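During the reporting period the student researcher (J.K.) took over the structure-prediction task from the postdoctoral fellow and processed the backlog of single-chain submissions. One of the processed entries is reproduced below for the supervisory committee.
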Amino acid sequence: ADFHQLAHLAHRRRLAKRPGAYVTYVVDRNINYSNICVCGCQFCAFFRPPGDPEGYLLSREQLSRKIEETLALGGTQILMQGGHHPDLRLSYYEDLLRFVKNRYPIHIHAFSPPEISHFAQLEQIDIGSVIARLRQAGLDSIPGGGAEILVDSVRRQVSPNKCSAGQWLAVMEEAHRQGLRTTATMMFGHCESPLQRIEHLVAVRDLQDRTGGFTAFIPWSFQPGNTRRTRRAETPASYLRLLAISRLVLDNIDNIQASWVTMGPKVAQLALSFGANDFGSTMIEENVVAAAGVSFRLSIGEIRRI
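J.K. obtained the following structure tokens:
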């Protein structure tokens, strides 16, 4: 499609879904409770294998400081994600949730589908039981991380030790069934074909037709710095094209989010004319993308100006 015609169609769809000149965002902080992971995904510059001297697990005191800083800055949510830690059992994460909920009035958006699948595998119980226990402990919603491209032939290349596309979708379907809202993501621009990107969008769209549980879709481009995949990063034009197509294909998801964290504020501003109506988070803290050498920071005032 013509680039500008695509933008026009996506923007028109955005205004039909969300009338008025409004852009949403949340004041929150990404807290990576650990970087110890056995996955070894080729696109990740953040993880450290077990036993690595740079590996860490946050203490309760460190976690408390981060949450108190977030609340002091007007934050309403924390996003907690970590690696596939081989030694932490489900009870650790339940205790973590209870620790936060018993002390702080904050929304906990935590544990992506690969993490939940990993917990189930360690405990040798079903995904539904894992989600139910996390909900009871205080989990409020689930982030859409770990989706990468929801095509198994792609996943076998870049993240062979992570859950399959079917498992990712099954975690989300079960979460929606239990009343948890979630987001969905796509990390593109590593080894997938254009058709496989469309397969990903259609898989998300089909699940949303069944459950209606996705609040937002967030596409972001692979950042190759410090990773084991050497290729050029996607251009702003290719990002905007995919964003516009996402808005058109995912006509059953209310919100499409611009990724200023990976693309920078100017491209994210332009994304608001390519179908995006949400600006994500203030990202008081962000570690995973920063580990790939890409680091943007925006205050609430800057987000409002943009």
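The committee noted the following: The first strand starts at residue 24 and ends at 26.
J.K. will present the remaining backlog at the next meeting.
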